[in-house]
Amino acid sequence: MERTAEPPSILALKSFLHELLLALPGKELGENVIEFQRFLKNVGLGDAVSLGEKGNISIEPSALPSLNLPEAARKILLYLGDQMDPVLSELYVKLFLETYEEFRSSSEPAANIWLGQLLRDCGGLLSGYGIIDRLPKNVKMPQLFQLMKPGSIHLRKEEKPAESYALVKEAVNYGFKAFCVTKLEPSKIRYRYGLKNSEIIWLTFKKAKERTITPDDLAGLGSFVSSVGLGSVVLFDCFQEIKVVNGFKGALEFFRELRTICAKNKSILVISINPMKLTEEQLSALDQALGGREK
Amino acid sequence: MAGWYFIPITLQYLVGSGLIFLISFFLILKNSKSWVYRSFFLYGLFAGLWILMAFFHRNAPNAELSADFITVGAVFGLIFPAFLLITFLMLKKQSKLNLLALLPAIFLGAVTLYLMPFKISWTTFGWSYGYSSDWYFATFVVFNLAYVVANLAVGIDLIKTAPTELLRKKYAVLLISYFVFYVVAVSISNMLLVYCIDAPPLGGIFSALAFLAIAWALSLKFNRSASEKSSNATGEGERSHVKEAP
Lengths: 295, 246
Prior knowledge:
The complex is a heterodimer of chains A (295) and B (246). By secondary structure, chain A is an alpha/beta fold. In chain A, 54% of the residues lie in helices and 13% in strands. Chain A has two domains: 127 residues, no CATH class; 146 residues, Rossmann fold. In chain A, the strands form two sheets. A seven-stranded parallel β-sheet of chain A has the order 6-5-4-7-8-3-9, with helices on both faces. Chain A is elongated and about 70 Å long. Chain B has one domain: Rhopdopsin 7-helix transmembrane proteins (Up-down Bundle). Chain B has a two-stranded antiparallel ribbon. In chain B, a hairpin with a 2-residue loop joins strand 1 and strand 2. Chain B is globular. The chains are: A alpha/beta (295), B mainly alpha (246). At the A-B interface, helix 1, helix 2, helix 3, helix 4 and helix 5 of A face helix 2, helix 6 and helix 8 of B.
């Protein structure tokens, strides 16, 4: 009897699952296998995927017709979030693209609805893992994804940070996680700009119930930005305060470091500055050092 | 260190405990956040301390100090099988309730520290011990047997239900190394000491062998290339198995 060839998406799924099994910690006592099975159950692949005696992954032929791969791909992304290492994420990208291609060839409108929903749920992750950039050229993408490239920096010159917050709010609507470091009271930011579920740190010397950090604690601010995951947006509306406490050179050096951190972590940095409070030389030094998009 | 003896054969205890500590620390450093590894680390730590106490007991400068070491060692010897049981239970289901398996060991450990039920005598191989209380000895045997039976029951179930051959092999080596070296071999060695006080001590060698077997089992991994072949089996694109999202 002739063996039916497996579609590329299934092969991509098997490669991804195999790499995941090898990448999970706890191989010595087999905890990786236990975690792997928990993962399969949580992403709805528990009945379809089986683990062979030698650790090989196989898909039950009887489960293939009912296997909802787009849904599995969505759940995998939600389950693993920003925890995929480069090798695993590359395999996930392949799985995602193969799934999308196959879905599109069977029903383009349904595939685009699926993609649209995923963009709204976890656009930041899709962007961070480089999936957006590798989608077919004819797929229409919201303008935001062209702007918010992983590792990019946006220096926005404005008297008030309203436009920067609007940009972050739009990113949140597309599934980006947002983190803000602000000179204002966080409750005001949440209320004024509608960032209810975002983490907001108050840059102040005051003690408050909210999470605070002092403007002179540049190491603390740096470690906060380092902890932000892939495809997240970090907004600073307090350049002036950091400048006053640490001097212009200190502030400039600090934001240069943040640029390196964000490039490494594939997160996005938005800095709102008031040009009225900076000299021409300072503005030009900022442009030169941060080399970001400017408005 | 004045007055301490050094019996060359007891060097096996130092080698055995060193090996156990090495493997245990290596594992916990790699997997410090896992409860399975934490309990396995404590299994190794207490087994290693038990062996180390046996070394000090054998070479102590006087009978009183030797009795102190064997008493503390006996407590560690009661605790380490409990941690193997907890490791097995954690592999089945992670729950803080698994720690209840420690209670009998802690209870008898406290009784041991209170009673200090050992009589010490000098032999060709340093200090040796016997039990000064028959009922303590009986209780000690019953508690140990209970841990052996529990470890065997949970361990065998774990082996039976393991999803892959590799895991079955790992768990089988863990269980067999515990049973053969700690239960059978050490029991025989201890019986020999009870009936023939001048018999050479072999606990250190058995412990080293047990942990060498465990280290071998832990180093077993899925063969990347072999299983990759199966997961990368070639096939031309047939685009019909993707179900439309609702």
